[in-house]
Amino acid sequence: MRFSSSFTIVKYHSKQFARYYSIMANPLVAVCQMTSTNDKDKNLETVRKLAEKAKSKSACIAFFPEACDYLADNKKATVAMSQSLDGPTVASYKEIAKTNRIWLSLGGLHEALSNNETHISNTHVLINSQGEIVGAYRKMHLFDMDNKSTGVRLMESDYVLPGQKIEPPISTPIGKLGLSICYDMRFPELSLSLRNMGAEILTYPSAFTYQTGAAHWEILLRARAIETQCYVVAAAQTGTHNKKRVSWGHGMIIDPWGTVIAQCSEKTDLVVAEIDLELLKQIRENMPCENHRRTDLYPKITPL
């Protein structure tokens, strides 16, 4: 009977907990949306303004999309414009974080590699409110698409080296944060690995194409939240970047029950939402999926 009562509360938490959310002091996060171009200075100014706005709304972490540093017009320029993590762009991000006393999730940045002139890394960087890098994850799954029926050709592997490591979740003011990037969301093995490593929040900074975003964006993100019983924060690129590239947008925050609790529209802006770890705990206790996995019949998904 106790399980049934609690389960009902969880099922309808979006309505029943409206007053609860309004009076509890859970940490706030901001999911940001922007339209990056090849103008790095303009992109940086957008990041700065959104970080300031996130801080004004009392968010403790601001999440920015993939390619928040820039989106170049071609592969050669993409590699040429890249910088190492000790370069001036990341230094500016550190200054923004420290000045505003806010954490920044920035992914994925175009990271120059000292030993490779033709390829870079697509790197998700996490900076704390003291302006220190506390995490860096390099994108494992590269987005390669050559769709002749739609005319869309995006071959990330032409200029990006895939990451070789799942980074452990990082302790933050909102809980344990698991880092991923965009196309990674199509591979539940990664999200389940992060959950098994202790993640409470998963984040997918993205630059989803318009066609794939319209079809799969929300469905995939809600699925990752439901199957891991984690919060999901997905910052997004939106709009037209150049003559060849348009992004879907609709950055969003999803709770562990799979409910979209905040969503951006189709412009440069941000939305905020609470991260309630007590709700997460309750959902996991009332529906203990992890206790029901048949690892005697299939292997437990864990990092190598």
TrEMBL record:
Keywords: Hydrolase. One of its GO terms (molecular function) is hydrolase activity, acting on carbon-nitrogen (but not peptide) bonds, in linear amides. Pfam families: CN_hydrolase. Residues 27-277 form the CN hydrolase domain. One of its GO terms (biological process) is nucleobase-containing compound metabolic process. This is Nitrilase and fragile histidine triad fusion protein NitFhit.
